[in-house]
Specification:
The chain is mainly alpha-helical. Helix content is 74%, strand content 0%.
Length: 226
């Protein structure tokens, strides 16, 4: 049964799989920057302007994903079946990271379509907590992955599932028009934003699960010993 810890051991050698692992961490750092900038534009700016070119950053993330695929494939072609599972873990991780990039780009596009800073009515406090929670996940996941810290990754997963549930509750409340003070533009934008936050959190949880789960259970809750 292979786990992420074994993949981290490859840091000690300079090979294609090691390079692919480093590329995946660059992807994670880039998506974190994209997230922070897009949220800042949507929630703090009245112009929809960005402090970075999100599209260029997204293209870089996509490039890293292709590089990871290329390096993993080349490594396996040279080494045969050696480290096959490690390569599959990396491919799985970068799929989640690429999707995070797409959702942060969606937030940026929402900020452009809704140039005035978004206020979420009765859901404002919940959305702020979710934003802070996702930002914290980005901060915690980098050292957890690099050190293959199962305890930190497990704590991150267990403590952040609430965001998934709360995002769904916000969307349901908006559908039921629980806040009559919100304009249609603000209500629709808040609903979309909650969905994007949910998906980013879910993909970060998937990445974290690669530290605590064997390959076949990546993306699922950890199976507790009976």
């Amino acid at each position: 049964m292979f786990r992420f810890k074994e993949l981290i051991e490859l840091w000690r050698s300079d090979n294609l799989l090691t390079q692919a692992l480093k590329d995946s961490q660059k992807m994670l750092n880039s998506t974190s920057q994209m997230f922070n900038e897009s949220v800042k534009s949507l929630r703090e700016s009245d112009s929809g302007k960005m402090g970075m070119d999100i599209y260029a950053k997204d293209r870089m993330v996509n490039k890293y994903q292709r590089e990871v695929r290329r390096k993993v494939l080349k490594h396996l072609a040279i080494a045969g079946g050696v480290n096959l599972t490690h390569g599959l873990i990396l491919i799985n991780i970068v799929i989640d990271l690429e999707r995070i990039g797409d959702y942060t780009k969606n937030i940026m596009e929402l900020a452009v379509a809704h140039p005035k800073r978004l206020r979420c009515g009765i859901y404002e406090d919940d959305i702020k907590k979710i934003e802070q929670g996702v930002s914290s996940m980005f901060e915690q996941i980098v050292p957890a992955l690099k050190a293959s810290d199962k305890k930190a990754a497990r704590q991150l997963i267990d403590s952040d599932w609430w965001m998934i549930k709360r995002c769904d509750e916000v969307v349901t409340g908006l559908i039921k028009a629980e806040d009559q003070t919100l304009s249609s533009a603000d209500a629709v934008s808040t609903a979309l934003y909650a969905r994007y936050l949910k998906r980013i959190a879910a993909h970060l949880i998937n990445v974290s699960s690669s530290v605590v789960n064997p390959f076949e259970r990546i993306g699922f809750r950890e199976k507790k010993a009976e």
